[in-house]
Design brief:
This protein has about 210 residues and is an alpha+beta fold. The protein has helices spanning about 70, 105-130, 135-150, 185-190, 195-205; strands at about 1-5, 20-25, 30-40, 45-50, 60-65, 75, 80-85, 90, 100-105, 160-165, 170-175, 180. Helix 2 (about 105-130) packs antiparallel against helix 3. The chain is globular. It binds zinc ion (ZN).
Length: about 210
């Protein structure tokens, strides 16, 4: 289902360029939900979220990545989901323009690797410019990249885990071995809850 949205684009501020796409379906472990995408035809801004049919509160999922099939475990990350690899102290918080996605553990690891490689490119520039602690930082990034690449290649099983924390309960790790728990109020309050209000308010009248 497609509908026009009567508010200016939050990114390019154009009027009349926003569209809202919504689609209901069922995902194993996640259940009945509506996938909502807000997109701007002018600047290409795109925000996706997954709204479960039933409110399920603030949830965290943790999967210790122990065997090849765990790399294929389905991930639904709503726009309010924070993704962590706690052993490496890595975290991607939603931020202002966060968009949700459906992927698997391997896909999420590759997203982390892409971000780290981007940071490495920047850090090499800093090294060239003689910034004092840049070589040390670059070395750390390189070690992270090695660890994540090895894990994605199926070589580091048992050492690392993937965690998704979502104050709105719009994210899951879909696998029997994933441990699900409720977030405490403090934990939920300390998490970035992403850009949701815009999508939520415009979906009310559709
Ligand atoms: Zn726009």
């Amino acid at each position: 289902m497609e509908s026009d949205v009567d508010i200016p684009c939050p990114v390019c501020k154009s009027d009349g360029t926003l569209k809202l796409l919504s689609m209901s379906s069922e995902i194993p472990y996640f259940g009945e939900h509506t996938q909502i995408t807000l997109l701007c035809e002018k600047c290409g801004m795109r925000q996706t979220d997954f709204i479960p049919a039933e409110e399920r509160g603030a949830l965290a999922f943790t999967l210790s990545i122990d065997k090849p099939e765990h790399l294929q475990a389905r991930i639904v990350r709503g726009s309010s989901g924070t993704v962590r690899i706690p052993e490496l102290d890595l975290e991607v918080a939603p931020g202002n323009q966060s968009t949700g996605y459906i992927s698997n553990v391997e896909g999420v690891l590759n997203r982390f690797i892409d971000i780290i490689r981007m940071m490495m490119r920047q850090m090499r520039v800093d090294v060239d410019e003689g910034i004092e602690d840049a070589p040390e930082q670059l070395k750390k990034l390189f070690q992270l990249e090695m660890a994540l690449t090895a894990l994605a290649d199926g070589k580091l099983f048992g050492d690392l885990s993937l965690e998704i924390l979502d104050p709105k309960g719009h994210s899951i790790i879909g696998h029997d071995d994933a441990v699900k728990r409720e977030l405490s109020i403090e934990e939920a309050e300390n998490l970035d809850s992403g850009p949701n209000p815009l999508i939520m308010s415009s979906s009310d009248d559709s």
